[in-house]
Amino acid sequence: MKAKFYKDLRKSYIFYLFIAPAMFYFLVFIVYPLIQGLLMSFQNFGLLGSKGYIGFENYRKLFNDPFFYQTILNTLIVTVGIVAGSVRGN
Q1: Core vs surface per residue 18-29: b (16+ CB within 10 A) or e
Q2: How many domains does the structure of the chain reveal?
Q3: pLDDT digit string (tens) for 15-61?
Q4: 10 Å Cβ neighbour count for 38?
Q5: What single-letter DSSP state applies at residue 68?
Q6: Which residues contact 56 (CB under 8 A, 6 or more apart)?
Q7: Are residues 59 and 90 in the same domain?
Q8: How far is 19 from 16, CA to CA, in rounded Å?
Q9: Which residue segment(s) compose the domain that 5 sits in?
Q10: Does the N-terminal or the C-terminal CB of the chain have fewer CB atoms within 10 Å?
């Protein structure tokens, strides 16, 4: 089983060489910032960096803010308007 895996890997190494730059781009510019943003959301973060872990306090503030819900509603209205305005009937 192991020998077959290495044999197949040797046959398709060109494929992996071609896909490596795209995977590198995806990991560096998409996955890493996404994980960093998630970790930052659980910290008290300022201009000079993290001031410590605060858990879900940022999310409590977010969901208790009345402007958050208004912003979500406005975003949905604009999105529906853009999609409806850009769909052409035949």
Answers
A1: eeeeeeeeeeee
A2: 2
A3: 888 999 999 999 999 999 999 999 999 999 888 878 889 999 999 99
A4: 9
A5: H
A6: 42
A7: yes
A8: 5
A9: 1-40
A10: C
Report the alpha-carbon distance of residue 48 to residue 44 in Å, rounded: 11
Would 45 be classed as within a structural domain? no
Q: Which residues pair with 43 in a beta bridge?
A: 53
Place of tokens 């490596």: 20
Residue 21 identity: P
Q: Give the span between the Cα atoms of 38 and 44, in whole angstroms.
A: 12
Do 2 and 36 sit in the same domain of this protein? yes
Q: What is the pLDDT of residues 55-68, one digit of tens each?
A: 999 999 999 999 99
How remote is the C-alpha of 51 from its chain's centroid? 24
Residues 36 and 2 in one domain: yes
Are the C-beta atoms of 36 and 45 separated by less than 8 Å? no
